[in-house]
Each structure stands twice: as C-alpha cells, then as structure tokens.
Amino acid sequence: MNTRLAYVINPAAAAGRTPARWQTARTELWRRGLAGAEFVPPTAHDGVDLARRAAADADVLVAVGGDGTVSEVASGLLQAGAPARLAILPLGTANDLASQLGIRTLTAAIDLIPNGQTRTIDAIEVRCSQNPSTPVRHALSFVCLGFAGEVLRQTTPAIKRWFGPRWCYSVGFLRALASCRRPNVRVRADQATFRGRWLHICAGNLEWAGGGIMRLSPGAQCADGLFDVCLIEAMPRLAIAWHFPKLLGGSFVRHPRARYFRGTQLVLETETPETIHIDGDMAGFTPAHLCIRPRCLHLLAPSGTGHS
C-alpha cells in the first residue's frame, strides 16, 4: 500500500485503556502492511497541533481513541487545510461518530483504511474567546453547555472504568443532578435571540451521544449543512430526573420547556464564563461562537453510508 499513513494516539482515551488496545491494533495493522508514523500528544488537547503537523505528510490521518480524539484530529486536519482523509480507530468509551457511520468493531475500522469509501461530512466550528491556546475547535457530534456538559464532567475516568460504556453516563447523570447549575445565557441564533436560565443548550451534528444511549439531537444529519439546536429551560431537579427517559429516547423535543430548531450560527453569552463541551471534552468557556462548515471533512466510512 503506497498510501502515507499517520496515527494520532490519545493515551488518555477510554479512561487510560487505549495504549494497551493500540498495541493490539498496531500488531494487526503492521501485519497487513498499514504501518505509519505515530504521534502521541504529551498533554490534553495537544492532539490538535500534532494532527495539524502530521497532516502535511499524510494521505490518511488516523484518530486512535474516542470521540474527543476524533474531534482533535479533525480540528488539526481542518486547520492545516491539507487534503488528507480522516480515518477512525474507535478505541474510546462511547465512539459515537464511528458507530453512527457504521464502524462498530476494530476489525471493521482496520479494513476501512485500505478499502473504505470517502464520505464528506459537516463540522461545527467552535470559537471560545476564553481559550486562547486553542481558540478554534471543531465538533463532529455535538456542542453543549449546561446539564449535558455536567453529565460529561461527572462521568470521570474512574466512573468509566467501574461501570463501562453501557452504564457510566447514567451514573454521571445521577451525579450531575446534585451539582448542575442553571446559567443565565443569551442565545443568538440565525433569526432569533433567546434569554433566560437554561438547563441544557446543545447544537448537534449527529442524533446519538453517550455510546448510543442518549438521542440528544433527533433527526440530525451530519451532511445537511445544518446543526440541530436544542434549548431546555431550567427546571427543578426532581423534574429533570422524571424527564430523563425522554432525553434517552428523544421525545423531550416536544416538551413545552424545550425549543428545537435547525440553524447554521449560534452565539452563547453568559454573565460569567461557562464551560463549553464538544464531543465529550471540555473545549473552553463562553462567550462562544458556533457555525456550521458544510461538507468540509473527508473521512473513510463503509460503503452504503451516503459517501460522496
């Protein structure tokens, strides 16, 4: 195979289990003639810079880890403006993007590197003014502020190790009930402005999150040039717990305290800086500006998944 490959490996993914999983994958990749340069970020979020540099000398840039790793590698690739394609080795906890693209096993992911079809998808560009070290990031699954971000924060590496991908986010939900805040946010969308205290704000590029257990953005499609916006007004903790099944199934969008619409631009402004999460990782703080970048990313996916 003459394709130049580069692997960006996140050692912190899957609560620190990725290095061992990578060694297994690496043995099979090298056996199949898919050897390439290896890049390991020394600290959190260094994957963006590594991917930007690796993209200059690669035809395929492979993200080795979970959704946060894929987001970092995609951000570096888009910042580089290089023609390299993105591939995914789903070795993280949730692997939401990979699974919704039809990449559900390590074997399937390895097969795609020489044989996959190129699919072109959207990305959500996120600019956080309170994060000068990495001012621009790109989300492929979702961007959130509020309760969903608190669930992610409370789903610690230890919780992931103890409860695994099936139950860890449910445990994180219960922990988040005790600590969640209801920030006062001004939300400026394409054609409307909303003000108030919000439990949950999310812009979604894919339907499912949390390892396929939460339908955060019902109907979202990753190549339609739009993201799906959900705003849920603040409510008491008991009401949050009562409505949790609706969050899992996606029917929450019909709740009278929810607003659900599609758009291309979103500005989030708060009284004090609030955390912004993208694809499972903390990305910075408000104020934040989100915009869709239509069909900007070329990645390897199974045939029959709407490739172009």
Structural overview:
The chain has 308 residues and is α+β, with helices and mostly antiparallel strands. The protein folds into two domains: 5-121 and 296-301, Probable inorganic polyphosphate/atp-NAD kinase, domain 1 (Rossmann fold, 3-Layer(aba) Sandwich); 139-295, Sandwich (Tumour Suppressor Smad4), CATH 2.60.200.40. The protein is built from nine helices and 15 strands. It has helices spanning 13-16, 18-31, 46-55, 67-80, 96-100, 106-115, 147-154, 157-179, 237-249; strands at residues 5-9, 37-39, 60-65, 85-90, 117-128, 136-139, 142-146, 184-189, 193-204, 227-233, 258-263, 265-270, 275-278, 281-285, 288-301. The strands form two sheets. Strands 5, 6, 7, 8, 9, 10, 11, 12, 13, 14 and 15 form an eleven-stranded antiparallel β-sheet that branches. α4 (67-80) links the parallel β3 and β4. The longest helix has 23 residues, at 157-179. It is globular. The model has no long low-confidence stretch (mean pLDDT 90).
Protein topology:
Elements: E1 5-9, H1 13-16, H2 18-31, E2 37-39, H3 46-55, E3 60-65, H4 67-80, E4 85-90, H5 96-100, H6 106-115, E5 117-128, E6 136-139, E7 142-146, H7 147-154, H8 157-179, E8 184-189, E9 193-204, E10 227-233, H9 237-249, E11 258-263, E12 265-270, E13 275-278, E14 281-285, E15 288-301
Parallel strand pairs: 1-2, 1-3, 3-4
Antiparallel strand pairs: 5-6, 5-15, 7-9, 7-13, 8-9, 8-12, 9-10, 10-11, 12-15, 13-14
Helix pairs in contact: 3-4, 7-8
